[in-house]
Sequence to fold (141 residues):
Amino acid sequence: MGRRKAPEELYRFGVSMEQSLIDKFDNYLSKRGYYNRSEAIRDLVRDLLAKEKVEIKNSVVYGIVSFIYGHHLRELEEKIKSLQHENYKSIISTTHIHIDHMNCLEVIIMKDKAKKIKLLADEIFALKGVISGQISFVSQV
Ligand code: NI
Fold:
């Protein structure tokens, strides 16, 4: 079993905000199920740093590329497959779901630099017959 890192000590700092902004923030928090502002602000800061890692720092991140396409286009399926084989080193897993008689959903989980993940995603999304595509990144702070 791996050794767990001891939890870091928490420090307090004051934040000044307009009342109207606090009201909107509290409203948002209650909808999202947060118990307190501190936890929400910690998450916001983590998100911000993770985003910076993806967008600016050229770090290795996880990327989830998902898209819907019409499976009756045989050439399209071949093209999607060969693009994935070209990128086999960055692809961890691919899941294929048959949505209905006509359409398929494919989810590709990748680990690489964000730029490289975006490149493959854009190539797939640009193919004729790919109806919609989405990409999201996950990284540790
Ligand atoms: Ni299918």
About this structure: The mean pLDDT is 91.
